[in-house]
Write a structure and sequence with these properties.
Distance between the termini: 42 Å
Largest sheet: 7 strands, mixed
Oligomer: single chain
Order of helices and strands: EEEHEHEHEHEEEEHHHEH
Structural class: alpha/beta
Number of strands: 11
Radius of gyration: 18 Å
């Protein structure tokens, strides 16, 4: 039986993206997007294994060709978290890290701050936030989060929270980065819960946890990332990765 401290990294990779078709296999600086994500997670040295979870034979073939471990998951999985839960039913661990397959600019140093949250016994679920860039403050695609002083998330929203009612010029907005880590029990709880009304209204899966009294703790991310949803995002991510290759 695996140690309860074992940490598994899972990259859900769905080929049928609606906003940018086939994005996890789109080439960026000579590699498919999902490979950049996998390499960053693997090179952290904190998770074993780091694998891709997919229902696509084409994604599986690309992983096989590049030596990337993968697990086939059901096409009925409604979300990335459901794919992680399916992997958890086969691979026993204490903590599972759900790594977005469309975050190619992640670096290995992202993972230690997230995993370090679990040194605190009260932490069941962890995620990231970064100072929100000015151009994203009013952007509903950039999710904002507010926390208590101990890092516990109070709310996530597509709205600009907190609301600067008296126009003080508040600039401390925090942007949520959608990488999560779960203790196994919390992951199982989450998978068993139906979507709540806050999740349905905001279209934010993490609100299902808060609605059901499961706390999420937020670690500061070492940097912002480029989540790829458009051709423009793809171009920006490629420029970043090509620059790193020259360093």
């Amino acid at each position: 039986m695996a140690s309860p401290l074992r940490i598994v990294g899972v990259i859900p990779a769905r080929l049928g993206s609606t906003r940018l078709a086939r994005k996890v296999l789109r080439p960026i600086a000579g590699k498919p997007m999902v490979e950049w994500v996998w390499r960053a997670a693997l090179e952290s040295g904190l998770m074993d294994p780091v694998l891709v979870a997919t229902d696509s034979e084409e994604v599986a073939a690309a992983c096989r060709e590049r030596g990337i471990p993968f697990e086939m998951t059901s096409p009925a999985c409604a979300s990335g978290s459901d794919r992680v839960r399916e992997v958890a039913s086969r691979i026993d661990a204490g903590i599972y890290v759900n790594i977005q397959g469309d975050e190619p600019t992640l670096t290995p140093d992202f993972f230690a701050p997230l995993i370090d949250l679990f040194n605190r016994p009260e932490v069941q679920v962890g995620t990231f936030a970064v100072r929100c860039p000015a151009e994203d403050i009013a952007n509903s695609n950039a999710v904002k989060v507010v926390t208590a002083s101990n890092g516990r998330a109070l709310y996530f929203s597509r709205a600009t929270i907190p609301f600067d009612r008296d126009a003080y010029g508040f600039a401390g907005y925090r942007k949520h980065l959608g990488i999560y880590a779960y203790r196994k029990t919390a992951l199982e709880q989450f998978a068993a819960l139906p979507p709540g009304w806050l999740e349905t209204v905001e279209r934010l899966e993490q609100l299902r946890l808060l609605e059901n009294g499961i706390d999420i703790y937020v670690a500061p991310a070492p940097a912002d990332t480029i989540g790829v949803d458009t051709e423009e995002d793809l171009t920006r991510a490629e420029a970043v990765l090509k620059a790193r290759m020259l360093e």
